[in-house]
Write a structure and sequence with these properties.
298 residues, alpha/beta, 7-stranded mixed beta sheet, two-stranded antiparallel sheet, 11 helices, 9 strands, globular
Length: 298
């Protein structure tokens, strides 16, 4: 036991009344590309893009929604509850315990958050899939949330924008997880039947069954720079076909060059780009979207 860390420091904090203050354990974040250390406040101010290299870090879903909507104002869409542990699954730990831990850590019921607001004066519905919540895995709760958000867009007759990040299906829910693939596909078809734009933004990483369903059914597929996008992993593919894959295979830029992704857009230009896209697809009058773009350092 570390006596100073586990006893002395908490005692001092309780005396000074600072024990509830939310301070990150590490105030510096290492750039995965350049290796430089960046102060976390600077990273937040730069929309979680590393100033030295432009590397796109994962962005919290609430920050993503606030950044996208006009003045950061939106109505949070209430998402339905789903059975927490339908199969009573257990591996090294109980699934119920893993779920409880993820909910406490992320202050969310599951990996999907959604909101209704305006982007450049045009009403839109935006959903975000959070990789921090059990790898953004697709389970019953996530599937129900996606269907609910898409149907809300159909009800309000708004374009639907989906920021996706996931490792695939949630193995702890077995076939019930796999069934979310056709369910969400049907919801996409409902958007299409209502003639509403569906814009997908692929963020790092987007893989597995998510890529095999709603992630690749958009009217336009946008990707963030460097995002890993694919179904099976590169090593699995190489072992299967017994060939060395090209450099950058399954990265956003490679997929754009080969027609799987329509465009790769820097996060600083994302809001402006999406605003133009939904207006174009929805045949709405053009309007300048106030940009939140920042000038990258260096």
């Amino acid at each position: 036991m570390n006596w100073i860390k586990n006893f002395v420091r908490p005692k001092i904090r309780s005396i000074l009344g600072t024990d509830k203050r939310e301070t990150p354990e590490n105030m510096w974040v290492k750039d995965p590309d350049s290796g430089q250390m960046v102060f976390y406040k600077d990273l937040e101010a730069n929309q979680y893009v590393m100033p030295p290299s432009g590397y796109h870090m994962r962005m919290p879903p609430d920050v993503r929604l606030t950044t996208m909507f006009d003045d950061g104002a939106y109505e949070k869409i209430a998402l339905p509850q789903a059975p927490a542990d339908p199969l009573k699954f257990r591996d090294e730990r109980k699934y119920a315990d893993r779920l409880k831990e993820a909910r406490a850590k992320n202050a969310a019921d599951d990996c999907i958050q959604a909101g209704l607001g305006e982007l450049g004066g045009l009403a839109v519905t935006i959903a975000v899939q959070d990789f921090a919540f059990m790898g953004g895995s697709l389970g019953m709760a996530a599937g129900e949330a996606i269907v609910t958000a898409m149907r809300k867009a159909a009800e309000k007759k708004t374009p639907f924008i989906f920021f996706i990040s996931s490792g695939g299906a949630r193995m702890q829910e077995g076939v019930l997880s796999l069934m979310q693939m056709p369910r969400t596909t049907v919801a996409v078809q409902e958007l299409r039947a209502a003639r509403l734009p569906y814009v997908v933004v692929l963020t790092h990483p987007t893989t597995g069954g998510v890529t095999a369903s709603y992630a690749m059914l958009g009217d336009v597929h946008v990707a963030e720079p460097g995002a890993l996008i694919g179904f099976a992993g590169q090593r699995v593919i190489e072992q299967t076909i017994r060939e060395k894959l090209p450099e950058g295979f399954q990265r956003a830029e490679y997929l754009e060059a080969h027609g799987m992704v329509d465009m790769v857009v820097h996060r600083h230009q994302m809001r402006d780009t999406l605003g133009r896209l939904v207006r174009l697809l929805g045949r709405a009058p053009s309007r300048e979207v106030p940009s939140t773009a920042l000038v990258p350092a260096g």
